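Researcher: Please translate sequence to structure tokens.
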Amino acid sequence: MDSKVDFAAEIGRMRTAKNAVIMAHYYQTGDIQDIADCVGDSLALAQWAAKTAAEIIVLCGVHFMGETAKLLSPDKKVLVPDAEAGCSLADSCPADGFEAFVKAHPGYRVISYVNTTAAVKALTDVVVTSTNVRRIVDSFPQDARLIFGPDRNLGNYINSITGRRMLLWEGACHVHEQFSLERILALKKDYPEAEVIAHPECKQPVLTVAGFIGSTAALLRYAGESPRTQFIVATESGILHKMRRQNPQKLFIPAPPNDSTCACNECNFMRLNTMEKLYRCLRDEKPEILVDPGIRERAVKPIRRMLELS
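Model: Translation complete:
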């Protein structure tokens, strides 16, 4: 790659010339967030993908997010900067295993977290994100028999606050699994005024010490609205970029993982995307996300149901 290429300028030029829109998740690096047309959590990205008039969608996130955009916009070209940017949570729920689990429990309705492949969504009654999961679970009768997958931590949390007894698939996000309660408590001693805020994909012990629990977007909103000025943030550290930009007078400290050599917790899949890869992606119009038409026909229904309920 020519080191003299101004990636930001070239991306901006090609975006206009090709009628493309760049969407980025909060867990992307700051430079990608800053150049994106839309930055948000999984729900926001899905909503934008459903309504954009652009001919090309470049999804800077992980593979399932690109699939979701393609499911909602089948006539548009959907690109991702790195096709290897997967998701440990989606990988923890293979479609054949999940299908067997569902068939073993006849009479259950299936709720799937958005962090899943299109093939898993095709086995689902309604998709949820961490932003809308409580609302959608509450839309079912209290005595409804429900399967929730794949995140056991999020499922356990929703069971605890709703009184439900959903059957849970045993999957998890490697980032949120790795937060260390011991190291968070030690950090709290160094910053006694800091409030712990956490994503519900975290393990229960971490959620127990959190003053606020919410989706990525909810954590961002809470940090801005709270009168507190210091926060220990237990989710992927990419969100701190937006928190600091919106609240420069406040202190945001990444919650540490179990690895004693690391001070913050990053998703290695999210970080596969770079400005150079984004430039090449727009230039070459690949890698492109394609979804089998038969799977798409079934998988898009629970996503549209989610958007209706959201």
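Researcher: Any highlights?
Model: The chain has 16 helices and twelve strands.
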